[in-house]
Write a structure and sequence with these properties.
about 140 residues; mainly alpha; about 75% helix; elongated; RNA nuclease activity; HepT-like_sf; nuclease; hydrolase; HepT-like
Length: about 140
């Protein structure tokens, strides 16, 4: 079967994801030197929010391009990526946690504490793994 997967779009989305990882790592590195700094809090919050959006957008692009089943929502996108073996089970559960936390980042930002953002923002390894899982799947399915 010939697929129409927008690999250029996926590459742009993964580039932004890598930039989010860099920001999260930098805010983590600076945490001790400037405790309570609102700039670091906002940078980490926004980078985490964008990282989740990137994963969802990549998932949507892949689902459309590979003609996978239609998702019913953000968590369903993660389920489909897991079912199609784009991401492993253990990674999928951690991504679901981030997708759930996204709601707080977007809708309940006024209730967020720096500790919550730090707890959820310490996901550089997972985010980098997502990038690798997607690339491995594309290579396997498209030979790219």
């Amino acid at each position: 079967m010939v697929y129409d997967v927008d690999t250029d779009r996926i590459e742009r989305q993964l580039k932004v994801l890598r930039e989010c990882v860099a920001v999260l790592e930098e805010t983590k590195r600076r945490r001790g030197e400037r405790e309570g700094d609102p700039v670091l809090f906002f940078a980490a919050s926004r980078a985490l929010h964008l990282a989740v959006e990137c994963m969802i957008d990549v998932g949507t692009t892949m689902i459309d391009g590979f003609i996978m089943r239609d998702p019913g929502g953000y968590l369903d996108i993660v389920d489909i990526l897991e079912d199609e073996r784009v991401i492993p089970k253990e990674g999928a559960e951690r991504i679901r946690e981030l997708v759930r936390f996204r709601d707080r980042l977007v809708r309940k930002y006024d209730e967020l504490s720096p500790g919550e953002v730090e707890d959820h923002g310490d996901q550089s390894e997972l985010l980098s793994s997502f990038d690798k899982w997607v690339r491995d799947y594309l290579r396997q399915e498209l030979g790219t």
